[in-house]
Write a structure and sequence with these properties.
Blueprint lengths: L1 E4 L7 E7 L5 H19 L9 H5 L10 H6 L7 E2 L3 E3 L2 E7 L6 H16 L3 E6 L24
Parallel strand pairs: 1-6
Antiparallel strand pairs: 2-5, 2-6, 3-5, 4-5
Helix pairs in contact: 1-4
Length: 152
């Protein structure tokens, strides 16, 4: 799977996936479950690079002391909104407002999709950001006109 970053606005982000063939209903479910899981973790503040205490500790985490205050003192890092998945031919897309989540969220998504591609669901390309000229985002009903239109 080729991964490409295009114009990036974390508050108005389209993520595009291209398959080699038109995806089946089961393949769509695999993709959507991966993205839904990622989004819900983000909505709960999981992608906070300011509080990576276990990662920072290194390999030996036996009897590690976890600092609750450090976790409480870090800035909130929350995703805000996710649109509905849309499909057209071999393409899928979804709109996101990543809010204040950190860039580690994208690394985790890419790792997830890379494994999904290897094991279950072959994907040709993953575009993060931008638009496709042959499928404009203006015709989408899953993206609010403004980030303030969603009540999630």
């Amino acid at each position: 799977m080729q991964i490409q970053f295009r114009e990036f606005n974390p508050f108005d982000l389209w993520i595009w996936v291209e398959f080699s063939t038109v995806p089946s209903e089961m393949e769509k479910k695999y993709l959507e479950e991966a993205f839904n899981s990622w989004f819900y973790l983000g909505k709960l503040g999981a992608f906070n690079a300011e509080n990576l205490q276990v990662q920072d500790e290194g390999l030996d985490i036996s009897h590690m002391n976890y600092d609750d205050r450090r976790a409480d003192d870090s800035l909130m890092s929350l995703m805000h909104n996710m649109g509905a998945f849309e499909y057209q031919g071999t393409w899928a897309r979804c709109w996101f407002d990543l809010g204040t989540s950190d860039a580690i969220a994208l690394d985790i998504l890419i790792n997830c999709l890379t494994q999904l591609d290897r094991e279950y669901l072959p994907m040709e390309q993953l575009y993060i950001g931008g638009e496709n000229a042959d499928w404009t985002v203006e015709d989408s009903e899953s993206r609010p006109e403004s980030i303030y239109d969603y009540n999630n």
